[in-house]
Amino acid sequence: MVKSAPNTFDSQLLAQQAIQAAICANWQQAAKINQKILSFTKDDVEALNRLAMAQNCLGNIAEAQKLYKKVLSIDPYNIIAQKNLDKISKFTSTKPNGGNTVPSNGNDHNLSKLFLFEPGKTKVINLLNLAPPQILASLHCGEQIIINPKNHAVTITTQEGTYLGALPDDLAHRLIAFIAGGNQYEACVKCSSPKTLTIFIREVFRSPKFASQPSFQCNPNNYFDTDSF
User: Fold this and answer.
1) Contact of 35 with 15, CB cutoff 8 Å
2) Using one digit for the tens of pLDDT, what is the confidence trace for 191-210?
3) Largest alpha-carbon pair distance within the chain?
4) Where are the domains of the chain?
5) pTM of this prediction?
6) In this structure, are residues 106 and 60 in contact, taking their beta carbons and an 8 Å threshold?
7) Sign of the CA dihedral running 19, 21, 26, 30
8) Nearest-angstrom CA–CA distance, 171 and 175
9) What region does 120 belong to: left with phi over 0, alpha with psi -120 to 50, or beta?
10) Which of these CATH numbers, 1.20.120.80, 1.10.357.10, 1.10.510.40, 1.25.40.10, describes 8-91?
């Protein structure tokens, strides 16, 4: 039986479903829907860009690069593909601040290590009071970001100082106290969409003052405490 192409309404509906999945950070579902769209229209640039973003957030860096390059082969001036491919290229060469080399040439194993869950020492959290969509859409999975404790809040920025969002109040108050007492933390982007930003925070140094106090409460039933790439 010959497969018939979906009508315009079906294509639009699938696109909306793909966008909604991305907004909810359901990257497996987003990838599946965009792949379905591409099974009918293989050169759909918007679906290719969405699929590349989903693969990127799933940690499939090499596949994301391949998809962005395909977009550029179809539309050489596509700004979304150009920008994200450039960010991936920079990310896969060296980690910011002189850190270890991160995934390149299809090696996504190190990205899994980057998001390794450690009870009491790591936390995955959705930020609040987010930056504009165009800023969030430019972020890359694994990109290092900055934690900025203030008197009564903790904001998150890019390394260049661009505001991204803020931690929920309960977590912010906890980290403010720990940082003031000598604890040190690092953070990076786990996944982002125009309307959501999920980050990964890791305790990298625990002050002797807090030797027996974990930075984060561990809830094994909480997706955001246990999920990893």
Assistant:
1) no
2) 887 788 999 999 999 999 99
3) 70
4) 8-91, 115-226
5) 0.57
6) no
7) negative
8) 6
9) left
10) 1.25.40.10
Say what the pLDDT of residue 90 is: 65
Q: How many CA atoms lie within 13 A of 55 on its CB side?
A: 22
Average pLDDT for residues 47-76, to the nearest whole number?
90
The one-letter amino acid code at 152 reads H
Question: Cα 223 vs. chain centroid, distance in angstroms?
Answer: 15
Query: Could you tell me which of 192, 55, 72 has the C-alpha nearest to residue 134?
Result: 192
So what's the pLDDT on residue 25? Answer: 67
In sequence order, which residues have a C-beta less than 8 Å from that of residue 104 and are 6 or more positions away?
Answer: 61, 92, 93
Which structure tokens are listed for 122? 């790591």
- Dihedral sign (CA 42, 47, 51, 52): positive
Q: What are phi and psi of 44, to 5 degrees?
A: -70, 105
Whether the Cβ atoms of residue 51 and residue 38 lie closer than 8 Å to each other: yes
Give the Å distances, CA to CA, from 108 to 61, 85, 167, 229: 6, 16, 28, 10
Name the amino acid, one letter, at 98: G
CA 122 – CA 218 distance, rounded (Å): 9
What is the structure's pLDDT at 46? 93
Tokens describing residue 202 = 């890791």
Match domain 115-226 to its CATH number in 3.10.180.10, 3.40.640.10, 3.30.450.40, 3.30.70.2330: 3.30.70.2330
The string of pLDDT tens digits covering residues 132-161 is 988 887 787 788 999 999 999 999 999 899
